[in-house]
Design a protein that fits this description.
By secondary structure, this protein is mainly alpha-helical. It is built from ten helices and two strands.
């Protein structure tokens, strides 16, 4: 038998400790992601094939947009999830806009567009690494890629407007959906289909196909950088699949068994905390997977810190020189 009070306490402590660690390291990691992908979005002047340069930068553009979205998800939805589950914070009716409607709109909009951008980056790598010239030519130009990014953002923003409309505060002080009809669309379509099933299937298919392309690539010149980027995306795809499955299972269980329970059991709450932590591992862990798996990514990070050390040394030398001049006078 489980001690319900002890289980609740352990779950909340887990949410606080793991959540704060994820908040700190996830924010730092995505800021570094943004720095690296801004550099990678710049045209490679060493290449003579302008069309290939634009193709090579497409994945970096998608990953830049994905990292910005991940940072937003970490700074607001993750922070409020720590407050809700870790500190058992109950929402009052006058906080419904900030803590319910705006929170869930931001969560599902930026989480879904981040996943979509990552899927697009994976698909672009599949096209670029193919030996089929027709498939390689399907990769869009940089200008068209920016248009696709903006269209995806607009579509998901419009799609999630009902999330902001139908969320309200329940009598127990939790955020809930007032419309029964939209509730089932929210659970089945947004939670299970869009966040779970579709990304898992898409990344499984194109991740496997990209991996098969990688085995045929020869490593030389800029092709080596492309192969590193493709391998990085492949590992991240695996992490997304692993993090999505428990969350998807939780939502299915909630729909089938726990929907009519006003207060979930302590064991279900513990499983909810674990699945929530795994849910946020995707936006949090991206930098660390990129850093471990990709030498070119590590090189950019090391160059950043070497540059900061050089700037600090120059400032120190200038201050030292000015001090000496004043002493001479």
């Amino acid at each position: 038998m489980f001690d319900m009070e002890e289980t609740d306490t352990s779950a909340r402590q887990l949410m606080i400790i793991a959540g704060i660690i994820m908040l700190i390291f996830g924010s730092i990691g995505n800021l570094l992601n943004i720095y690296v992908f801004i550099i990678w979005c710049r045209p490679r002047t060493t290449s003579t094939d302008h069309h290939h340069v634009n193709q090579t930068n497409n994945s970096s553009l998608y990953l830049l947009a994905s990292s910005i979205s991940n940072l937003i998800v970490i700074l607001y939805p993750l922070l409020t999830r720590i407050i809700f589950d870790g500190f058992n914070y109950l929402v009052s009716p006058n906080q419904v806009i900030i803590l319910c409607q705006l929170r869930f709109f931001i969560l599902h909009t930026f989480d879904l567009i981040s996943l979509t951008y990552f899927c697009m980056a994976t698909f672009d790598r599949y096209l670029i690494t193919s030996r089929n010239a027709h498939l390689r030519n399907l990769s869009t130009t940089k200008h068209r890629t920016i248009q696709i990014i903006l269209i995806i953002f607009l579509l998901f923003s419009l799609h999630n407007i009902p999330v902001a409309i139908f969320f309200h505060v329940s009598p127990t002080g939790h955020c809930d959906i007032s419309s029964t009809g939209y509730l089932y669309y929210y659970l089945y379509a947004i939670q299970i289909l869009f966040h779970g099933i579709i990304p898992i299937i898409f990344l499984s298919i194109f991740g496997t196909l990209t991996f098969q392309h990688l085995k045929k690539l020869q490593i030389h010149g800029h092709l080596n950088v492309d192969k590193q980027l493709s391998r990085m995306l492949l590992l991240m795809s695996t992490a997304i699949i692993i993090s999505s499955i428990p969350y998807c299972i939780e939502q299915i269980y909630y729909v089938m068994f726990s929907r009519n329970n006003t207060e979930p059991s302590s064991l279900f709450f513990l499983l909810h905390v674990i699945s929530s932590i795994l849910f946020y591992t995707y936006p949090v862990s991206s930098y660390y997977i990129y850093f471990i798996s990709t030498p070119h990514f590590r090189h950019e990070i090391k160059r950043l810190f070497r540059c900061n050390q050089h700037i600090h040394l120059r400032i120190h030398n200038q201050i030292h020189t000015i001090t000496e001049q004043h002493q001479l006078h």
